[in-house]
Amino acid sequence: MYRTHTNGELRIEDIGKVVTLCGWVQAKRDLGGMYFIDLRDRYGITQLAMGDFDFSIGREYVIQVTGKVVERVSKNKNIPTGDIEVVVENQVIDKDNHVSSLTILNKSKTPPFTIENETDGGEELRMQYRYLDLRRNPLRNNIELRHRLSIEVRKYLDSINFLEIETPYLIKSTPEGARDFVVPSRMNPGQFYALPQSPQTFKQLLMVSGYDRYYQIVRCFRDEDLRADRQPEFTQIDCEMAFVTQEDILQTFEALMVHLFQVTKGIDFDSFPRMSYADAMLNYGCDKPDIRFNMQFNYITELVKGKGFAIFDDAESIIAINAENCASYTRKQLDELTDFVKRPQVGAKGLIYLRCNEDGTYKSSVDKFYTEDELKKWATRCNAKAGDLILVLSGETATTQAQLSALRLHLGNQLALRNPDIYAPLWVYDFPLLEWNEESGRFHAMHHPFTSPKTEDLTLLDSNPGNVRANAYDLVLNGTEIGGGSIRIHDRAVQSRMFDLLGFTKEEAQAQFGFLLNAFEYGAPPHGGIALGFDRLCALFGGQETIRDFIAFPKNNSGRDVMIDAPATIDKKQLDELNIKVTL
Amino acid sequence: MYRTHTNGELRIEDIGKVVTLCGWVQAKRDLGGMYFIDLRDRYGITQLAMGDFDFSIGREYVIQVTGKVVERVSKNKNIPTGDIEVVVENQVIDKDNHVSSLTILNKSKTPPFTIENETDGGEELRMQYRYLDLRRNPLRNNIELRHRLSIEVRKYLDSINFLEIETPYLIKSTPEGARDFVVPSRMNPGQFYALPQSPQTFKQLLMVSGYDRYYQIVRCFRDEDLRADRQPEFTQIDCEMAFVTQEDILQTFEALMVHLFQVTKGIDFDSFPRMSYADAMLNYGCDKPDIRFNMQFNYITELVKGKGFAIFDDAESIIAINAENCASYTRKQLDELTDFVKRPQVGAKGLIYLRCNEDGTYKSSVDKFYTEDELKKWATRCNAKAGDLILVLSGETATTQAQLSALRLHLGNQLALRNPDIYAPLWVYDFPLLEWNEESGRFHAMHHPFTSPKTEDLTLLDSNPGNVRANAYDLVLNGTEIGGGSIRIHDRAVQSRMFDLLGFTKEEAQAQFGFLLNAFEYGAPPHGGIALGFDRLCALFGGQETIRDFIAFPKNNSGRDVMIDAPATIDKKQLDELNIKVTL
Fold first, then answer.
1. What is the DSSP letter of B174?
2. Which of B61, B86, B106 finishes a domain?
3. Which of A309, B153, B346, B409 could form a disulfide with A369 if both were Cys (CB 3.0 to 4.6 A apart)?
4. B98 pLDDT above the threshold of 50
């Protein structure tokens, strides 16, 4: 070992010890003849004091020092090692030899940005020098949190008899769903593997094999056009259980989450609230409501129609939210909210407001159509009190719900109701089995083709497939979906019927999923599972919204790793061996 | 939950309980009016007894039963639940309803092979129905052992401050080493990612970033022509440490292995023996000696030369091993050994033997060239006693060592000296840095290009590169390499010099590994690590030689998954989007 202690370790009890430390030079200071270095490693910072100092040592140099631990004259209460410092003599005498007390293990050029909690480096530069950015405390804390979460997930699931079983990364391409990354096979010319979008079919086969509690923390791949904060490769906590109902899965993974909150955040949860998909859409306009704040939807359709205001009269639904204590919003603030809902990403035509003034009067943007008494009824419906502000959108129901949901979240941010240190988990259940896709003119699976319909809705499969509910559920945290799952189909006939509904021919279904259909004929047990997005989970536990800084080496929005400069062209020899050609 | 207990759980203390069990029908028996079912799940087998039996229930049906636990009349001492059975009435009466006590959860066709410890299914058939093969106890034990080993590795490394950090799977192709699997990038037309052969450069960058104890249990990929028992994707326990010497790494990972042996096999190791590469080659002719048995090499060159036997007289080295107590080998047995060494895979021209007869006389195949007294000297050199058999090969030294090593292992197998329940770990160290490759006419890195030369051999880098020893080590278990590692280069100049030696131009080195060379200029600490082959480790801990049955869904020797039928052709649309074309 190059060191006897780390830089986070020494305390007042260690005074008098001769220690050897290694680390990076965080800072150096000249205090009139005494020289000080802050020596940094993963574990902390220790102050070195020396009478004579080699000024050729710069920031981020890697050094090894030997010296004696002494009590500091002026203690630093901000760091755990702040009571002591290590006095490094130019030469220390050991029993045989003179030994240099300071060795430069490696030099450093001046870093392109400061290695501080708040750095001066831009995003692009920090991505290029990711290995330097990762030295900063905020990133190190994220990476350490990620490790902590993964080890706790594993310990917990192991303790309740789950087995981690590795599934293959080189599998078969299945056009259903998102685009696959593919891998040409040299040994099977003209054929391709695909990288898994999830281990879905393999974990179901493991249930058929009798491994009734499976999990895996596993990389998954999707070749999608990357929106901000999406990664082409991402990690999920993938789980499956046999002989269980939806209730069993919810309880099992709620207990896992309760454990994670407890051990990593010190937060105790009793149980998580639950909400049906229908209620989520009705009350929040969204299937992943942020319930850290209330501001639920109020349907005022029948209150406001037929009073001559054409926009409301023509609307399918008129929905209002109550922004508490916002009656004092200025004209400018209201205009900003209107601009927000008119952004193309939201797409509303306009925004109606109703101020519930402190003096008990009402002021609305549509005053001329409604009496004070009518406006009062809006307020009553919205549980608004004097000083509140009611905001109203109208139109086709689903569209209006989505628009008002966006406004609700925007207000939540603006009013600081979305504190990242507050955690509000929520189960959403009873998702629809299918959703109609206008473009392809057919139903798509809302979750995936293996999700089972609710028994009581089975008869609707033929008559009204769009109304069939699934045994499917999402785990939502602070308005973000962090996981989803379902009870799966385990009957060959039902699975075949499902493929029919999704537009597969018998031949396509057999070619792509024949192994699963066949497996269902050899004693497949009832089973279901869940997959949690691990990158997102880490980010939320870290109190942040973006996942990129919770991944050691992420890719940018073009799917590039700018540090190693990948992807890149490859040799013609490689292409030839793979029997492929670039067609550009 | 579909069940109150598993099939491995019920004991004599549970008598009288009404329980619900689920599982697969392992066997059914008719004992004159009483019917019995062995119900199986992952946890064990429970016997069900019933007076009336639905004979439509076949093997591997999935059933759910409710019944009362009773003491068995004739107990089965071979299974933990053998003291009890569960009596299933045709109907049980609960307080509200009549409930059927036996529910068929799913049917099963007759499996294509028996789901027994010893099955009648051939390899190919079992691979195709892998989900059924995985139901058999031997495979289930392997998969459970694998889980146990992985969780214990993680817990142990976590306990000594290692962080598991995930590195990317979509990286850059580097032609050095084995062939990469590549992944065409749709968003970066004409460019390709590569799947990692190991996270080598990323873990080194993490050391530069200050994460001084890293590990990852990680999938790696090599597009090699598959020899028996190689997989295109395999798992390794990948580790790296900073501020350490070779001794620190050996001690750290020896302690990990000692822990694994202790917790999974109940075997206590004090410490592992160590052997230099030079000694391993000298005494065993191989860099991964199986030291479960002795049979070391004896160099008898100067004893046997110059006596007129041309084959010996022309040989660079004459090397003998002593097969103890084998003097009684028949002519036929000796011929078989001769045939063995003459196989093309071994390549010797012939085999000389010397019988040390029980009566103190000697009998050799080259009697006419040597006196009894001379033959006695061979025996003395080989520590052979009466009753032993000395076997001799000769020729060019390295070739002869390799041939004799093959014969030694063959004899070890034949003489049952290689008991899979005996564990003999060994560190081999001081590997050469480089090996000359005749085909390419240049040096290749014996370990990889990032391995550091030994400081005392640095001067040889220019004068005699082939003689430079590396700070490299392998962990060998029972004659199989289960891991290897090295202290890395952390100095840009030395790394550049290494790339020179390996035939890289400056431009090539910068294009492929510029990110690492650059990182070394910003305070890279001394570091090193190791990677353990996890599939192989599991197989050896399971007392087996082949890794395939320790992987849930392995590929065959053509790199195919015959169960899902991958790889496969993909749609032209997919190829077009990726800007590639198959050239067959």
1. -
2. B106
3. A309
4. no
Q: Do B552 and A61 touch (CB under 8 A)?
A: no
Q: Is residue A153 part of a domain?
A: yes
CB contact under 8 A, B163 and A144: yes
Q: How much is the pTM?
A: 0.95
User: Which residue range forms the structural domain that includes residue A532?
Assistant: 139-275+425-550
Regarding whether A326 and A261 lie in a shared domain, the answer is no
B180-227: pLDDT as tens digits? 999 999 999 999 999 999 999 999 999 999 999 999 999 999 999 877
Confirm whether B148 is domain-assigned: yes
Angle CA B78–B82–B85, to nearest 5? 155
Enumerate residues 6+ apart whose C-beta is below 8 A from B343: none
Number of domains into which chain A is organized: 3
**B23 domain-assigned:** yes
Same domain for A157 and A266: yes
Q: Is a pLDDT exceeding 90 seen at residue B174?
A: no
Could you report the per-residue pLDDT of A19-28, keeping only the tens digit for each? 999 999 999 9
Q: How far is CA B343 from each of CA B339, B390, B562, rounded to the nearest angstrom?
A: 6, 20, 33
Domain harbouring A98, CATH code: 2.40.50.140
Query: How many angstroms separate the CA of residue B107 from the nearest CA in chain A?
Result: 5
DSSP A138-195: HHHHHHHHHHHHHHHHHHHHHHTT-EE----SSB----SSSPPPEEE-SSSTT-EEE-
Look up the ipTM and state it.
0.95
Average pLDDT, chain B: 94
Residue with tokens 């990158």: A535
The two structure tokens encoding residue B447: 């370990």
Q: Which of residues 293-332 of A touch B (CB under 8 A)?
A: none
Is B147 in the same domain as B261? Answer: yes
Do A134 and B567 lie within an 8 Å CB cutoff?
no
Q: Is residue B192 located within the same domain as residue B215? A: yes
CB atoms inside a 10 Å sphere around CB A442 = 12
SS (H, E, C) A307-371: CCCHHHHCCCEEEEEEECCCCCCCHHHHHHHHHHHHCCCCCCCCCEEEEECCCCCEEECCHHHCC
